[in-house]
Structure prediction request, 141 residues.
Amino acid sequence: MNNKIIVRVQKPDFDLNLEMEALKLKTKKAGAVVFFVGKVRDLEDDKLRYLEIESFEELAKRQIKEICDNAANTWDLEYILVKHRFGRLKLNDNIVLVITSSKHRKNAYEASRHIMEYLKSNVPFWKKEVANNTENWVENS
Prediction:
């Protein structure tokens, strides 16, 4: 399975249609594909100007790979892709993409959730929300 795990920590955006087409070329046995996309959202009490995401890229990539390896050892999966962006992102920009695929949907759903839960709480990404009236560092959760 390890050759079907792809992890990227990057500035550029990702294209969901291109990712789906690439997935079709990598596996023919997957009957289920789960896409999770995390996006920049507005704040409840102030207007967000941008979200600044910082990362130690190599460490983040290594830790995400470990999370994916764990998922691959726990669930019967055909393919895992994780892309996490850093840099200055504006409202509605994509932040993170997790794709899991398996023969059956249960494995793909559970693995996707597992990857996101551990990614959000354990991988070193630092996020600062810059709004009209405030600037706040956001805790990982």
